[in-house]
Write a structure and sequence with these properties.
The chain is mainly alpha-helical. Helices cover 62% and strands 6% of the residues. The protein is built from eleven helices and five strands; from the N terminus they run αααααββαβααββααα. The strands form two sheets. It has a three-stranded antiparallel β-sheet. Strands 1-2 form a two-stranded antiparallel sheet. A hairpin with a 4-residue loop joins strand 4 and strand 5.
């Protein structure tokens, strides 16, 4: 497990001892792989899951007449969750910088979006900037936490990954469009086409336990966007924020938000890629090295076409 924290190394060693002697083939082997996959995903989501549980709990049980405003309580709890993530070695200091960047990027967008009326928060509490309670930035930080954690938990590798400078330009254009479309043409469909053009050939290699699964990266982006969309429905139901069409009563978030979350995923991926540069899977590098060794071992073999 690359760049694992000290706690994760201990958990990984314990899991390997537990699974020592487990079958390598058959139904039981497949069930073990599925179980490990689910547990790794749950471990990667721990920040976001904890924050979502707190938001729902505040909706169900936080007293309306409490001296501390609910939004302020959510902000303080989110800070404590982040401190716990570091104290219990669930995140590294290096990853914290990425998460802080997610936090800042998200808060800037929140300030703009609430100002133009895209969504709104309850007007209570003092831990806020304008109409944006400070806990909102932690929701973006939760996405960042998931991204950096899933990268190392699954030892991710990529084939045919686009050049990072090209992805950075596209991510910048996507972020700009989140603002500019309010007074100019909405370029999201052009940007989505750009995403498909860049990442369509890319395949993600994720090591579960004994097996490595290979998935088209665009499909992974779409799957995570759906997952975030579902979490957003829970968050709005819990009253953490509301869209204009939810002002008279809660209803499911518009499916159009899926495209927004998909594009936000691209920004997330690009930010993480500057901390964990996309790499070719180690297994493919070994195969390539073995192939080159075989060529060199054959007398008279040529590597060129000439």
């Amino acid at each position: 497990m690359q760049r694992a924290t000290s706690l994760e190394r201990r958990v990984d060693a314990w899991a390997h001892r537990l699974l020592l002697g487990a079958p390598a083939n058959g139904i039981r082997a497949g069930l073990i792989e599925v179980t490990v996959f689910v547990l790794k995903q749950a471990w990667a989501c721990i920040f976001g899951a904890a924050l979502l549980v707190v938001i729902v709990a505040a909706r169900l049980w936080y007293p309306d007449d409490a001296a501390l405003a609910r939004n302020d309580a959510l902000t303080i709890t989110a800070v404590l969750i982040q401190i716990a993530m570091l104290a219990f070695r669930l995140e590294s200091g290096r990853e914290l910088w990425v998460i802080v960047l997610f936090h800042i990027t998200g808060t800037v967008m929140e300030l703009f979006k609430t100002d133009v009326g895209s969504w709104a928060y309850a007007a209570d509490g003092i831990l806020r900037i304008g109409g944006v309670p400070l806990f909102s930035g932690f929701m973006y930080a939760a996405v960042g936490s998931y991204m950096v954690r899933v990268y190392r938990l699954f030892d991710l590798g990529f084939t045919r990954y686009p050049r990072r400078w090209m992805t950075a330009i596209l991510a910048g254009a996507i972020y700009l469009n989140f603002f500019a479309h309010h007074w100019w043409w909405d370029a999201r469909w052009v940007l989505l086409a750009g995403v498909v053009l860049l990442w369509l050939p890319t395949v993600m290699h994720a090591r579960v336990w004994r097996r490595t699964i290979r998935l088209p990266l665009l499909a992974v982006f779409a799957g995570v966007a759906v997952f975030i969309y579902l979490a957003e429905n829970i968050g709005t139901w819990a009253g953490a924020w509301a869209y204009p069409d939810q002002a008279e009563g809660w209803q499911p978030v518009s499916l159009s938000k899926l495209s927004s979350w998909f594009l936000l995923m691209i920004i997330s991926v690009v930010l993480v890629a500057w901390v964990y540069p996309p790499r070719v899977p180690a297994s493919l590098l070994r195969e390539s090295a073995d192939g080159m060794s075989g060529i060199r071992a054959v007398p008279g073999a040529r590597t060129g076409a000439g």
